[in-house]
Amino acid sequence: MRRLRRFFQRLFSPLTRHRAEERLREEIEGHIELQTLDNIRAGLSAEEARRQAVIKFGGAESTKEEFRERRGLPALESLVQETRYALRALRWAPMFTAATVLTLALGIGATTSIFTLVHAVLLKTLPVRNPAELYRVGRETHCCFVNGYSQQGGFSLVSYALYQHLRDYNHGFVDLAAVPSVQSTLGVRRAGSADSAEALPGEFVSGNYFRMFGVDAQAGRALTPEDDRPGAPPVAVMSYRLWREKYGADASVVGSVFHLNEKPFTVVGIAPPGFFGDTLRDTPTDLFLPLNTEPFVEADADLNKYDVHWLALIGRMSPGVSPSLAEAKMRVLLKQWLGSHRGEMSASDRESLPRQTLYLSGGGAGITSMRERYESWLRILMAIAGFVLLIVCANVAHLMLVRGLERRRHTSLCAALGARPWRLVRQPLIESVLLSLMGGVAGLAVAFASTRAILHFAFPPSSGLGAVPIDPSPDLPVLLFAFLVALATGIGFGIAPAWMAARVDPIEALRGAGRTTSRAGSAPRKALVVLQTALSLALLSAAGLLTNVLQNLEQRPLGFQTEHRLVAKINPRLAGYRPQQLPALYARLHDAIASVPGVESAALSLYSPPGGGWGSGVAIDGPSNAASAPQQNVALWDRVGAGYFDAVGTRVTRGRGISEEDSATSRHVAVVSEAFARRFFGADDPVGRHFGRAPDHPRELEIVGVVEDASYFPSPLLGPALPAFFVPVAQADYTHTAGSLYLRDIVIRTRPGGASTALAAAIQQAAAGVDPNLPVPLIHPLHEQVAGQLTQQRLIARLTSLFAILSLILASIGLYGVTAYQVSRRTGEIGVRMALGAGRAHIVRLVVSGAFALVAGGLVIGLPLTFAAGRMLASQLYGLPSTNVMVTLTSVAVLGATAVAAAVIPALRASRVSPTEALRSE
Amino acid sequence: MKDKVDVLQGTLALMVLKTLEVLGPLHGYGIARRIEQISGGLLAVNQGTLYPVLLKLEQDGSISSEWGTSENKRRARYYRLTRTGRKQLGAETRGWEQTAAIIGRFFAVKAEDLP
Fold first, then answer.
1. Peptide bond preceding A610: is omega within 30 degrees of 0, i.e. cis?
2. CA A590 to CA A582: how far, in whole Å?
3. What are B's interface residues with A at a Cβ cutoff of 8 A?
């Protein structure tokens, strides 16, 4: 307490310094006077009395000094003074200050924004209570629907029946919740509202979902297991975003009725802000419905199908239960359940039954499909950002080093005048810290702006839907890390020259200063330039490789045409159509759209490329290359209308496409892709052969044609095309409900020269003429749909290029700095050389060759680094060549050209030095 | 060296407090004279060292000061003991007496006294 009080008194003492000084002087004077009076009284002469008094008092100056030291905090005061001095010094060197602060800002900002993104996607846990207790079933996330009773790599999706079994009999989880692996699109309309339904992402969740996450409702209540019973009144929980953005946080939303796919639901609560569900998605869920309402809302319910696995499981582990024990118990439960369905299994499922198992994995981050999709790209970006930070450090180190060397003479002088080493190091230290602070603050601004920009470009927001739930504010630990790295670099290289200078004999240093061609201190700077060049080369060629890949992707044959093609998105489900009504609707829609002037042809399809596809097993009739394990005989399939291949522009290479002659009553046919033909028939002609989707019906479909491969999602973007087949819309079974009956895309081929906006309006009008209840189809050109798929890849390639350009700029600043500094140091030498008859060309050659030696060194080190980086890229991205001679050569050329530019300017300046002036300059 | 000074200053501070307790408000010279009289030679040479000690005590809040008029009709700074100072003096006096007693006993023990 007393110490604290003293500290504060001392802290604020500078404010009263003058008065205190005066007071002390007066007190000392008074003291001596009183002593003198006493001495006179004791019988001394006036003069002697005063002398004795002064002697007795002791050193007045040392008393004052001690007094001052006690009164304030001298260390603090001199720190303030030196900081002020350092600020002034930085103002005198605006170029140096600007270069350092800018370098730091770009480096810290860029690195931070990348790591913020990486952290959000790869590392962050869900915003729920105690996410460390969450575990999910399955090691990898899988999508959509899996049929049958076997899953390779362990069960990760389960049917509702299997979920109930696992939920009710397991002992490891407090709560085990289930959610479909895909969101549902719901037509949402508030009861009594005149607006047409709006398509929003919804999710069916088990009743214990919110309780398991430990998430309470913001308003109203969360869903409970009571809501998730067959026959319970249909209720829903709305996202905070939708509640606020669409309904203005209106309290009356809670308790009111909404029509979801034309079915009435009561909204009972609002999810808390920040809660985006179980999965990080670019379209966060807006409505949470109980799983048991799925048959009520969806025409093709999966809830009661035992063998359709579509639910992902995530649960909260009971405290004190070891996950491996819980996993073992879950495996026993799985085996039990599978055993009880032995009778319904296919022969192959029965055969693989002993190998079926499941795994638990950490679920703190929820269901991590985004992580798995972008992991390799983000790793690449992270490596690149790390490289850039290294280059930034090298640049800062270099700038500091040069400044330190320039100050050598000053340092030597101070040392000669008796300054202690600590004192000599303190000034550059303060300067480095100041610069780093300024760079850090600017970096924070850069990080803010760039994170926002990257998020915007990576996940372009769609109107009416929520944005990807990633917070654009920079990740603080990352920012701190980048800042500390830069600070350490700045301080290390800032004080090193001063430290070295302090250890040199001051007389020697002063004598030598400015009169030497010695290379003292230039080795570390040159090493830094070599390092920067090497890193820049690696980055440049990595950027080149990625850009090259992207170009290949954009230019590779798509397997369809994008010119003069529109896609209209329909959703008959939202208008409440039953399957039996669909064939007539499809026929009327096709005829209405095909007759719009300007439309060449139109065809309906389940998916248009690169939209998607359903997976199916394939059983070939007769001899084939099919694998013995049925799980490996799979293909994507699509349901398409007559004339589809012509409409989308896919070439039929053998046989025929789907046509009008394929009706509900004719023989069932299929058209297969070339990849399908290669996979199952090798070189044989597949036309006329038969295959089926189930092993017991190998003659279900007759192959009537082969079409070229087209890139359909989820075909890997960079990999070979997956086998695919197409079946006619007319031959579907409309007596049962199935999701695949509801077609989504109408592909429209337009006549050249049609005005697209007017045409789109005419098509919409034609569709509305068929059924006004049908939501107005969204129409956009097919090339947009294709380009949208490459958004993220393009972004990464662009970011890499951006970083490469950044590093190139930094490296050339470094090179320029070294050369320019070298020239200024050698002004005297150059003057002598010119006085002795050296020509200008000779001087230019002298300077440029010095710079080139450094660049050559950088290239020699950089080439292996480049190959290593290429190998790393190739290991992360399929189909990427690890080296590309053209790219490497271009990078070397670009770097060389930049180096020439950076070296020639100082060289020319050197050649213009007039010998007499140069000699006088010392 | 530094330790010795600190010990000296600690002792000096205690003397200042005791002086002010006994004599009431007093100026620097008065305190110095009193300490010199009682301690014999401690402040005989270097009276100036007293002032940093007074400053420290004032920063601690043990004493306070104000301007007054001295016996030769000049302005002088008068120091007085505060309540904190009085408490501090009490505590330090006890501590000092204890230490002194222990040290005293220690020096009184002769080798033959030991068992």
1. yes
2. 12
3. 27-29, 32-33, 44-49, 51-52, 55-56, 59-61, 70-72, 74-77
B104/chain A closest Cα distance in angstroms: 31
Residues from chain B that touch A63, judged by Cβ atoms under 8 A, are 48-49, 51-52
Q: What is the DSSP letter of A158?
A: B
Counted across chains A and B, CB pairs separated by less than 8 A come out at 74
- Return the residue in B51, B62, B75, B92 with the most chain A beta carbons within 10 A, the one to mutate for interface testing: B51
* Degrees to nearest 5, angle at CA B23 with B17 and B26: 75
pTM: 0.64
The secondary structure element, H or E, covering residue A779 is: strand A778-781
Please provide residue A857's backbone torsions phi and psi, each rounded to the nearest 5 degrees. Answer: -60, -45
Q: Dihedral sign, CA of A262, A267, A272, A278?
A: negative
The answer to whether A70 touches A352, Cβ cutoff 8 Å, is no
Q: For chain A of 922 residues, list the mean pLDDT of each consecutive stretch of 10.
A: 67 68 84 87 88 82 73 72 84 81 84 79 75 82 72 83 88 87 80 74 89 87 89 90 86 88 88 83 85 80 81 87 87 88 79 83 73 72 80 80 74 74 78 86 86 76 66 73 77 73 64 50 74 81 77 72 84 75 89 88 85 75 77 82 89 90 89 90 88 82 90 56 87 76 86 76 84 74 71 69 75 72 74 80 82 84 85 70 77 81 78 72 54
**Hey, are the CB atoms on A30 and B61 less than 8 Å from each other?**
no
Which of B59, B62, B92 has the most A C-beta neighbours within 10 Å, making it the best mutation to test the interface with A?
Answer: B59
Please name the member of A2, A23, A58 whose beta carbon is closest to the beta carbon of B48: A58
Q: Looking at chain A, which residue has its C-alpha nearest residue B62?
A: A2
Q: Which of A10, A35, A63 sits opposite B59 (nearest CB)?
A: A10
| Parallel, antiparallel or unpaired: strands A198-205 and A287-290 | parallel
User: Are A58 and B72 a contacting pair at CB < 8 A?
Assistant: no
Identity of the residue in A9, A59, A66 whose CB atom sits nearest the CB atom of B52: A66
DSSP H/E element including A753? none
Q: State the pairing for strand pair A198-205/A184-190.
A: antiparallel
By DSSP bridging, strand A778-781 and strand B63-69 are: unpaired
**Cβ within 8 Å, pair B45-A24:** no
CB contact under 8 A, A70 and B72: no
Let me know how long chain B is: 115
Axis-axis angle for helices A476-503, A94-118 (nearest 10): 140
With left for phi above 0 and alpha for psi between -120 and 50, is residue A657 left, alpha or beta?
A: beta
Query: Cβ contacts of residue A820 below 8 Å, gap of 6+?
Result: A905, A906, A909
Q: How is residue A272 annotated by DSSP?
A: P
Considering CB atoms only, which of A6, A27, A34 is closest to B51? Answer: A27
Question: Which residues are CB-neighbours of A666 under 8 A, at least 6 positions away?
Answer: A731
Residue A735 burial (10 A CB sphere; 0-12, 13-18, 19+): exposed
* Secondary structure of A625-682 as H, E, C letters: CCCCCHHHCEEEEEEECCCHHHHHCCCEEEECCCCCCCCCCCCCEEEEEHHHHHHHHC
Chain B CB contacts of A33 below 8 Å: 72, 74
Q: In the sheet where B63-69 sits, what is the strand order?
A: B26-27, B75-81, B63-69
Quick check: A63 and B33 CB within 8 A?
no
* Residue A553 vs residues A460, A540, A718: alpha-carbon distances, Å: 20, 20, 8
Interface confidence (ipTM) of the complex: 0.83
The 10s digit of each residue's pLDDT in B9-51 is: 677 888 888 889 888 898 888 888 888 888 776 655 577 888 8
Residues of A in contact with B77 (CB under 8 A): 23, 26-27, 30
